[in-house]
Amino acid sequence: MTAAELKTLLQTELKGLAAKFVSDDYDNAITSAEQDTGWSMPVTDDFKIKWMRQRAKRHLFSYRRDESADKFKYKQLSLNQRFDHFFRLIENMDRIFEKAKEESAFEFAGVGALNLFGTKVDAGFAYEEQTGRDMTYSSSNEIIIHPDENS
């Protein structure tokens, strides 16, 4: 999913709220989502698409909350319900994101199970089985720097 596709998806999902945002708001929200997750657009994995979308929405709600901050007083009446709703919504989204980062640490870190244990480094010494001749420096005794599942 590219940034333009994510922008279109966010506009569709936010429905009536979408009219309250300008194009730069969406771009800034996507940039902030990239900073939150450590990923960059385009993303192709469903897991990454989900969290980029959620974090971008969170930042859009934050923009609305910030815009609403000065509008919640009218004479003596406190009209802070909308402000409180955005605040609770953003707080809940952040809590869910933190929990997801703990539960899915490998997906957020982009670390595969193969890379989890580091790089295999052989001892470097090799001898022929039957003769015991030193083969340490022969071309057939290369150290594997980038292991795969079969090594």
Describe the structure.
The protein is mostly helical and 151 residues long. The protein folds into two domains: 3-109, no CATH class; 117-151, no CATH class. It is 52% helix and 3% strand. The protein is built from five helices and two strands, in the order αααββαα. The protein has helices at residues 3-14, 23-37, 46-68, 81-103, 105-109, and strands spanning 73-74, 77-78. The protein has a two-stranded antiparallel ribbon. A hairpin with a 2-residue loop joins β1 (73-74) and β2. α2 packs across α3. The chain is elongated. The mean pLDDT is 82.
- Counted by DSSP, the helix tally is 5
Strand elements, count: 2
Largest sheet at a glance?
2 strands, antiparallel
Mean pLDDT: 82
Oligomer state of the chains in this structure: single chain
* Percent helix: 40-55%
Strand content: under 5%
Which short descriptors sum up this protein?
about 150 residues; 2 domains; single chain; about 5% strand; two-stranded antiparallel ribbon; mainly alpha; elongated
Question: What is the strand and helix layout of this fold?
Answer:
Layout: H1 3-14, H2 23-37, H3 46-68, E1 73-74, E2 77-78, H4 81-103, H5 105-109
Antiparallel strand pairs: 1-2
Helix pairs in contact: 1-3, 2-3, 3-4
